[in-house]
Amino acid sequence: MALDTDDPPGPDAFGSAAPTSIASLLLLADGRFPDGSHAHSFGMEAAVALGRVHDPASLHRYVEARLWTTVRTDAGAAVLAARGDHPLDVLDAALVVRQPSRATRDASRTLGRSLVRTAARLWPGSEPRLLDGRPPLQPVAFGAVAALAGCGPADAALCTSHAAAAGLSSAALRLLGLDPFEVTAVLADLRDPVAAVAASAADLVDVADLPSTSTPLAELDAEYQRTIEPRLFGS
Question: Among 56, 144, 154, 211, who pairs with 202 as Cys (CB 3.0-4.6 Å)?
Answer without folding.
Answer: 154
